[in-house]
Amino acid sequence: MQWKNCVFIILCGFCFAFARCNFRNDSYIIYKSSSVLSLNGIWTAVNLNGSIIVKTKVPGSIYTDLQRRNIIQDPYFGENDVLYSWVGHDSWTFKKKFKADCHLLQKTRIILMAHGLDTVSQIHLNGELIGASDNMFVRYVFDIKPVLKTNNSIRVSFRSAVEYSKEKHESQVFKYVIPPVCPPPVQNGECHVNYIRKMQSSFSWDWGPSFPTQGIWKPLEIVGFDTLLITDVTVVPDIFNGKLQNMTVSAHMEMASFDVVSGTMTISLNGSTIFHSNMSIEPDENLNAKTMIKIGFPENFDIKLWWPSGLGDQPLYTLIVVFSNSEETASKSVKIGFRTIELIQEPVDNSSGLSFYFKVNGVPFFAKGSNWIPADSFQERVTPQYIEDLLQSAKEANMNMLRVWGGGIYESDEFYETADRLGLLIWQDLMFACALYPTYQDFLSSVSSEVTQQVRRLQHHPSLLLWAGNNENEQAISGRWWPVVDQHLVQYKADYVKLYIDTIMPLVANEDPTRTFLPSSPSNGPETVRERWISNNPQDNLYGDVHYYNYFGNEWDPDTYPRARFVSEYGFQSLPSFESLANVSNPEDWIYPLNDAMKHRQHHMFGNLQMESMILKHFRLPSSSCGIQGFKDLLYLSQIVQAVAIKTETEKYRRSQSEVVNGEGKTMGALYWQLNDIWPAPSWASIGNSSIIML
C-alpha cells in the first residue's frame, strides 16, 4: 500500500476514519469503517410532572431550550437568576426517536458514546435501562447492540443537581459535615455543590449566578465497529538540545470483542510515515486496550520548537495514528508541538526559600497573564469565535499564560487548540475549588474516571503547562475557613490526602509523566510535601505561588503588594460597562446610589463598599442628583481605579523578578484575576461578557 496516497476522512467530530487509498488504474478500494450515527439535533424535553414540554437542541441545556421557546426570558436579565431557580430544582427528561441503518446494526459492537451529560441521569433505549451518569466531566460508553433496532426511542432522564447534592449531604452529615454547606447569602446560590461532579460555579460564585444546568451538553453518538476504535492519543517527545531524540505515542482503544485483533499500525507526522508495523491488540476485561510505541529519530531529523507568545513561533505538527486490517480501519489525528518546560524550585541567594519559575526550551521567562473562568453559564452559547476573540485579546495584551481556574470546566478542544496556535500556556486546575470534598468510594471512582479521561484528552497540547489539583483547598484547611474545620481537622486532612495525593496525583503521573503536578494553588511546593501536604501557611512568599487580595490598602501604592515567588491570583473588582448592563436591566435601575436591582448583581460580600472606598481614595463619588450620568460615572470610575491598581500591582511583580528584599522577591509570574466575565455584573474581569473590554 502506498501510504503517502491515503486520504483520511473525519467522521462526525470523532476523528474515527476510513482510508481510501489509490492503487492502479485510478480504481479505489474503500476499507470498511466504523459506522457513526449522530444523535445531535432536535429532541423533546419534559419536566417531572409533565406540565412543560419543549423542543430542545442537543448539545445544549434546559435553560436555553426554555428561553428559545419563550417559557423563560433572558436568564441574565434583572433578578431572573433567582426567579428561574425552579428550573434547576425540577428534573428534566430528554427524548428522541431515530432510525439505525443495517450497516450500523450489523457491526460486532455498538456503543452509545456520550461525551458530556450534565449531570445525574439514567439512559433508556427502547424502554431498557442501558446506563447512568453522575459526572459532567466524564465521557460515558454504553453497550447497546442487544437493544438497538431499526426504529428506536431514547430517553435521558436527568435528576435535579440541587436535589441530588442535598441528598448526598444529608447522607453524609450524620458522620461529619463537609464544608461549605451553602454559599454566602449574597450569592443567591444553591447548597452542597461539593457533592456533585459538576461545574462548581453553576451553583453560584462571588462573580457569577446560580444556574444548575441539566442537559446533554456535549455530542451524543452511536458508534458501531468490528475491530476497534482509537479514542485517545497521547504523545511524549524526548527533546534534547532542540533535537527530537525519540517520541512515545500511546493509542487508547475501545475493542469490538475479547478477540485479539491483528493488523497494521501506521503513524505519520505532517504526512510523513514515522512508524509502520504489524501488531496484535489484546483487550482487557473491560474491552479496552492500549499500545505504546517508542519511535527513534535520526540526528538530522529537523523539528521547529514551539514557544510561548513573545518568545518565538508556534509551529504545530499533525500526528495521525491509523490501525488497519482487512476488516476495518480506524484512525485519530491530533495537533502537537515540540517544546520542553521545567518548573524550577531551587535555593535562592540571600533567602531561606525556593524559587518558583518556568523554563521553556531551556529559557527562563516571566509568566504574564490572567485567570480564565467559564465564558458563559450555558456552554452551548460559547462559540469557537468567542473563544478566539477572548484568547486573541489576551495575546494582544502581551500575555503568555492563562490559568484555567478549578471551579469551572475542563475547557473545550477549541480552547486548547486556540491556545496552541496563539502561544498561550495553560495552567490547568482540576475541577475542585474553595471547598472540601467527600472521599467515599463512588465519589473517588467517578473522580478517577474524570481525571484519567481529561488528562488523556489534553495531554498532547503544547500549550498545557501543568496540572494543579485544586483551587485554594489546602489554604481552606490551613486557614480554618469554616469554624467546623477545627472540630474535624484530622479527618479533613486525611480526606484531602486521600483525594489529591493518593487518588489524583498517581493518575496524573501515570497518564502524563512529563508535566508537573501541584497538589493545590496556592501551595509551597517541596515545603508543602515536607509538611505532609498541608502547609502551615500556603501563602508563604518564600515558596510556590500565592493568591493576594487587599481591598483596603492603597491599591495605587506599589508598597501595598508583596514580593512573592509567583502570584497566580490578584485583582480588584469593578462595575461592568454600561453597554453590557443596559442589556440586562431596566432604565430605572441606572441611578446612583445603586438600587436593589443593581445590588442584586453584586455577589461578593462588601464588594460595592470596597469599590466605593477605592474610588474615594482618588476621586469623588458621583452626586445622587446626577441621574443616569452619575450611574455611568460610577461605572467608569470603578474601572479606572481597577485598571490603575492592576497596572501598579503587576508592575511591582515585574520589578520584583530582579530583586530580593528580606529574602522575598525573584517574582517570576503574575496572573491577575480575572480575564473574562460569565455575565454582566460587578467582578474582577478585564473583559466583560460578550467581549466588552473594561480595562
TrEMBL record:
<dbReference type="InterPro" id="IPR008979">
    <property type="entry name" value="Galactose-bd-like_sf"/>
</dbReference>
<dbReference type="InterPro" id="IPR006102">
    <property type="entry name" value="Ig-like_GH2"/>
</dbReference>
<comment type="similarity">
    <text>Belongs to the glycosyl hydrolase 2 family.</text>
</comment>
<feature type="domain" description="Beta-mannosidase-like galactose-binding">
    <location>
        <begin position="43"/>
        <end position="218"/>
    </location>
</feature>
<dbReference type="Pfam" id="PF00703">
    <property type="entry name" value="Glyco_hydro_2"/>
</dbReference>
<protein>
    <recommendedName>
        <fullName>beta-mannosidase</fullName>
        <ecNumber>3.2.1.25</ecNumber>
    </recommendedName>
</protein>
<dbReference type="GO" id="GO:0004567">
    <property type="term" value="F:beta-mannosidase activity"/>
</dbReference>
<keyword id="KW-0326">Glycosidase</keyword>
<dbReference type="InterPro" id="IPR013783">
    <property type="entry name" value="Ig-like_fold"/>
</dbReference>
<dbReference type="Pfam" id="PF22666">
    <property type="entry name" value="Glyco_hydro_2_N2"/>
</dbReference>
<feature type="signal peptide">
    <location>
        <begin position="1"/>
        <end position="19"/>
    </location>
</feature>
<keyword id="KW-0325">Glycoprotein</keyword>
<keyword id="KW-0378">Hydrolase</keyword>
<feature type="domain" description="Glycoside hydrolase family 2 immunoglobulin-like beta-sandwich">
    <location>
        <begin position="230"/>
        <end position="339"/>
    </location>
</feature>
<keyword id="KW-0732">Signal</keyword>
<dbReference type="InterPro" id="IPR050887">
    <property type="entry name" value="Beta-mannosidase_GH2"/>
</dbReference>
<dbReference type="InterPro" id="IPR017853">
    <property type="entry name" value="GH"/>
</dbReference>
<dbReference type="GO" id="GO:0006516">
    <property type="term" value="P:glycoprotein catabolic process"/>
</dbReference>
<dbReference type="InterPro" id="IPR036156">
    <property type="entry name" value="Beta-gal/glucu_dom_sf"/>
</dbReference>
<dbReference type="InterPro" id="IPR054593">
    <property type="entry name" value="Beta-mannosidase-like_N2"/>
</dbReference>
<keyword id="KW-0458">Lysosome</keyword>
<dbReference type="GO" id="GO:0005764">
    <property type="term" value="C:lysosome"/>
</dbReference>
<dbReference type="GO" id="GO:0005975">
    <property type="term" value="P:carbohydrate metabolic process"/>
</dbReference>
